[in-house]
Amino acid sequence: MRARGASVTDIVVLVVAADDGVKPQTKEVIELFKKDEANVQLVVAINKVDRPGVDIEKVHHSLLVEDVHLEAIGGDIPSVEVSGLTGQGLDQLVETISAVAEMQDLRAERDGNVEGHVLESKVQKGLGPVATVLISRGCLKPGTHIICGTTFAKVRVMNDAAGQSVKAVYPGMAVTVSGWKELPKAGDEVLQGSEQDVKKAVVNRERKAEEDALLTDVEAINSQRRLDRDQRELEVQAAAQGTIVQVERAADDGPKELRLVIKGDVSGSVEALVGALEGIGNKLARVKIVSTGVGEVTESDVLRAKAAEGMIVAFSVPVPRPSAAAAGSSNVPIFSSAIIYKVMDEVTEHVTALLPTEYDRRIVAEATVLQLFDIQLGNKRFKKVAGSRITNGILQKSKPVQVVRAGTVVYEGHLDTFRHLKKDLTEASKGLECGISIQGFQDLREGDTIQSYENVEKPKVLY
User: Fold this and answer.
1) What CATH code would you report for 115-193?
2) N or C: which terminal CB in the chain sees fewer CB atoms within 10 Å?
3) pLDDT tens-digit series, residues 85-141
C-alpha cells in the first residue's frame, strides 16, 4: 500500500514519532522515496514533540544514518516538528508542503480526459462497488464513463473524505466513486473515454487476460506432457534392460500447501494481508492464496474453499448465517478476525501442522544380558532366552526394544518371553533379574544391552 501511494504522489510526508524514532515502516518509506527520488520530494514531520523527554537531535541522527539529510543538520530535506495532539507545528507543515510544491512547480491539466488511480476499493451497502480515486488530470463529473483494469463505470455519485457529495473533481483531489460494474483493483489506472470506447477497451483487456491465462495453462500442460514422455522413455529403456525404474513426480516432492480464500473489508486490507500471509512457510509447507475478494463471505467462497480443500479467512467482514451453515456442512474452516497479527498467528499454526511429524527416540529402560539359556519347546525345538538384569528404568513388555552391541544397534523389535522364575511379567523395575527373548531374533549374546524405548513426537517448528 505504501508503494502504491508513493507511486501516485508528488510529495511524500514522512511522519516519524519523536519518542520511537526510525522504525521498520519508516525505513520502508525511505526506500520507496529513494527509488523515485527524481520525481518525488520528501518532507519529514517529527510528531509527538509535546511529550516530555523526547530527543529531537537523536531523531535527526537516526534519519541521517538512513541517508536522509535534514535541513536542520545541513541537509536539503525540510523537516517540521509537530504534535498531532496539541496541533503544534501543523500550520508550519502545511506551509512547508506548499513551498515545496511551488519550488517543484507542480502543475496538472484541468482539461481533457480524466486520468487517475484507484487508491482503495470496497463494496458499500446501498452503493455496491465503490473506489477511492485520486485524479491526476482532467475533471471528473457524474455521468462520466471511465475504465479501470477490466471493469468500467458510469460515475453515479462522488463523495469527498467528509462524505459530502461532489459535482466536479480536479487534479489532486481524491473522492469515492460509485457506479462500477465490478470492483476495481487498488493501484490500477483510471482513464476516461466515450461509452463505446470504454466497452471496446474492456472487451480487449478481458481477451488479453484470457490469452495470458491460456498461455499459462498451456505451459503447465506442456510441462506435464514432457514429464509423461520422459517417464515412458525410461520405462521402455528399463523394460529392454530387464530392470524396473521408478520415476517420482516433482509435484509429489513439493511442499504441502495451506490453501486460503481471503475476504476483506477493503482491497487495500486484502492486499496487505495477502502480502503478510504469502511469506509464511518454508520448503516443506507454505501458504497458497486460492482467491481474494472484498465483501462478506458468500456461499460461493465456501464452495471454492471446499474444492481447493482449504480454509477461509474473513478479515474485518461478517460471515452470514447461510455461509457459516454451508461451511459447517462442508467441513470448511472459517477464521474471522479484524487483527492482522491474529490472522498471521492462526495461519502460521495451520501451516506448522502441515509439517511432517518427526520423533525423538527416548530410552526408558535398559537390561544387560548376563547369561544365555536354551529352553526346549518340544519336537526338538529350542528357544534362546537371555538371563538379564534390569539396570535402569522400568522395562515394559508392551514397549519396543532394541539390542545394542558394542555401541551399535543390531536389532529392533518387541519382547517375546519376559519372565521372572516361572511368572510372566508385564513390567520389571531396576535390579530385577529375568528371562528375556525377542521376537524374530535368536542372536542375543552375553554383554548385549536390551533397551526399551518410546518415540516422542518433536515439536514442529516452521522457522
Assistant:
1) 2.40.30.10
2) C
3) 999 999 999 999 999 988 888 788 888 899 999 988 988 888 899 999 999 899 999
Nearest to 21 by CA among 60, 70, 69: 60
**pLDDT at residue 267, rounded to an integer:** 86
Which of these CATH numbers, 3.60.10.10, 3.30.1360.180, 3.40.710.10, 3.40.50.10050, describes 254-353?
3.40.50.10050
CA distances to 59, 199, 415, 456 from 398, rounded to whole Å, are 67, 75, 8, 16
To 10 degrees, what angle do helices 340-353 and 267-278 make? 40
CATH topology of domain 2-104: Rossmann fold (3.40.50)
Phi, psi of 146 (to 5 degrees): -130, 155
Using pLDDT thresholds of 50, 70 and 90, give the confidence band for residue 64: very high
Alpha helices in 354-390 (DSSP H): none
Residue with cell 497458497: 288
Confidence of residue 242 (pLDDT cuts 50, 70, 90): low
Q: What is the mean pLDDT of the chain?
A: 88
